[in-house]
Design a protein that fits this description.
With 213 residues, the chain is an all-alpha fold. The protein has a domain of 125 residues. Helix content is 49%, strand content 2%. The chain has 5 helices and 2 strands, in the order H-E-E-H-H-H-H. Strands 1-2 form a two-stranded antiparallel ribbon. The longest helix is centred in the C-terminal third of the chain and has 54 residues. It is rod-shaped and about 145 Å long.
């Protein structure tokens, strides 16, 4: 009984490699082919991988239920991070010395994280809850601030135009009040011609009369 020779391995074509890469996605942004949406998970198995990247929120921002950050009330308290706000780890009256408060905003986020974890990220409805929460906390305030800045700039430009118009109007009124300058009387050289002709005629007549005398 003869031994079967192993089949020579064929080189994997570039087309096959390209298809596999598309199927698996970017290895820096996926977890076993499941998209992480560019998020940086602290653990591959934690539901936090479905949250946006964590960071300390702006001191003038609000939490999920609309209350201000803690240092807006007491400067001794640091502002919350995005994950603290989204996961209902804020405190009563925005005071870190008080008990954790429970809000419908945070409960919805926690439920969505649980649903995403159970479905390994394949739950568009739960993902929308996370995306909407991020939009409410971060995107919407930025849009509002941009619109406010644009409105203020338009108001400034409008005021500058009104001031310019008022200045021009006052200038016109001042010019209208000034007396009109007297017209200059100029005599054209041709206006002396008739007088010269008359003078010549008179001289000729006098010469004729003098000769007859």
């Amino acid at each position: 009984m003869g031994l079967t020779k192993p089949r020579p391995r064929k080189a994997v074509s570039q087309a096959t490699i390209s298809k596999l890469s598309k199927a698996m996605g970017d290895p820096t942004k996926t977890f076993y082919g499941k998209s992480l949406g560019g998020r940086v998970p602290p653990s591959a198995w934690s539901s936090d991988r479905f949250l946006p990247e964590d960071f300390v929120m702006s001191p003038d921002s609000v939490t999920g239920d609309g209350t201000w950050q803690p240092n807006m009330v007491n400067p001794d308290y640091a502002p919350y991070t995005l994950w603290e706000v989204m996961k209902d780890k804020t405190h009563v009256d925005s005071d870190r010395s008080k008990a954790i408060k429970v809000t419908s905003f945070g409960l919805n986020v926690l439920k969505a994280l649980k649903d995403l974890q159970q479905s390994n990220g394949n739950n568009p409805k739960a993902q929308k809850v996370i995306d909407d929460a991020y939009h409410q906390l971060i995107i919407a305030p930025q849009i509002k601030a941009q619109i406010k800045a644009q409105d203020e700039e338009l108001a400034r430009q409008k005021k500058a135009k009104e001031l310019e118009y008022a200045t021009l109007k006052m200038r016109v009124i001042e010019l209208e009040k000034r007396p009109a300058p007297a017209p200059e009387i100029t005599i054209s050289p041709t206006s002396y011609l008739p007088l010269a002709v008359v003078g010549i005629v008179i001289v000729v007549i006098l010469l004729i009369l003098r000769r007859r005398a």
